[in-house]
Design a protein that fits this description.
The chain is α/β, with parallel strands linked by helices. It has 3 domains: 212 residues, FAD/NAD(P)-binding domain, CATH 3.50.50; 115 residues, FAD/NAD(P)-binding domain; 104 residues, FAD/NAD-linked reductase, C-terminal dimerisation domain (Enolase-like, domain 1). The protein is built from 14 helices and 24 strands. Strands 1, 2, 3, 4, 5, 6 and 19 form a 7-stranded mixed sheet that branches. A hairpin with a 5-residue loop joins strand 20 and strand 21. Helix 1 packs parallel to helix 4, helix 1 packs parallel to helix 9 and helix 3 packs parallel to helix 7. The radius of gyration is 23 Å and the shape is globular. The structure holds 1,4-dihydronicotinamide adenine dinucleotide. The site of 1,4-dihydronicotinamide adenine dinucleotide has 24 residues, from helix 7 and strand 20.
Amino acid sequence: MVYDLIVIGGGPAGYHGANLAGKNGLKVLLIEKTALGGVCLNTGCIPSKTWLHAAKIYAEAKNGAAYGVRTEGISLDQERVTARKNKVVKILAAGIRNQLQKNNVQVVAAQGDIIGRDETGFMVKAGEDYYSGKNLLIATGSVPIIPPIPGLETALREGMVLTNEEIFNLSRVPASLVVIGGGVIGLEMAAYFNAAGSKVTVIELRDRIGGEIDPEIAAVLLGNYRKKGVDFRLNARVTAVERKRVKFIAGDGEEEVEAEQVLLSVGRRPFLSGFGLENLNPVLEKGRLLVDRSGRTSVPGLYAAGDVNGRSMLAHTAYREAEVCVGRILGRTEEVNYEAIPAVIYTSPEVASVGESAESAARKGLAVETVTISMRYSGRYLAEHEGGDGLCKLVFTRPEQRLIGVHLISEYASELIYGAGMMIDRKMQAEEIKKVVFPHPTIGEIIKEAVWSLPG
Ligand code: NAI
């Protein structure tokens, strides 16, 4: 049988693409070598959210007195937190399996190897069997970057250094945790282990945390976590990982910090090798599988969605990319709007942003005006955040006042940001946003408040 679509990789891009194609009547084969759900479900988004929710409950309970609530004798049981994480993952994995079945997707649990391409289509070997498909979707994801730091490989092998692939199996909170890389994974895990009671040190190469998030918002987040006891070493370069310690240079001399465990989170790279992709010879660029905004590679019929194309490396981007790939296969002309993809860091407070920052707009030579207001303008924020210092920053084009960027630091920011993304996607101007009715009292009202605070 010749499949209409063969998908390699069962993460968000792979299972979503397979489901959509199956739902639309295509004959679909999905090949996954480990667990359905990919990094997101098994060692990423979902495990971290279950852990972080436990940390949030724990931290709020400890801070109950600030809200007039007396709490005594509370503690965090890491073994149970991890057991609950496993339960949540199991439920969602079953959901993915059911959906695939419902959409008539054939699933093969094996390593897929691309053999080549002939007049009938793409030939893929999985297990002992050979399969042929008219279209092929590569959704093989990404793997952690392992920098050449002396001692790192050994420490990884011995289990002192962990990546996101291993950390969620910890059933004990380490006394000390050194996080190498103050990006998204590093910050979320620093937040968790700080709340859970570890002494956390974050070593970051750059002078800021959180990658490209708005610098003012990054500074507020940094201040929040320094206040909670996380030690941040910025402009710092790790020179060696040794038994129970990490050495680094920050400023003049070499320093060292004690580390029962180390989390390595210095970024991820597309997973492109070991499954025969070279047999199709698609164009690669800077270690990623090059695609256009419709997920098409340089090889007709070969698509790539998710981390493997290196464009955004977020699960929600992967979903959208899978949608446009399948749309193309079904004959529709669709593209991903990469200008309106939200990004979230699930710390407490959360950071969420979408679109341009003042910095990125300046790099593009766009004339903009920005408005920044304190989250304390929101009644609900004030009621729920004793001592909170959250911010809302909007970026508009000048003179049209079209919204092109929204940056938030506040609880619930992750739940608000899609609305902001929609405003940007729909190219809404300040005058139109003013007419939107926001429920009161909500944290989301801050967007309306910020728009009304624009001059004019
Ligand atoms: P990242 O790219 O977010 O951050 C890596 C950080 O490490 C950067 O700040 C970088 O300057 C720093 N760095 C690089 N080399 C270093 C070195 N040798 N020493 C010290 N610092 C160094 O990558 P991260 O956190 O590993 O996350 C990987 C991917 O997973 C990201 O692409 C992210 O989009 C995704 N992810 C998304 C989440 C979310 O949406 N909430 C949560 C977790 C991960």
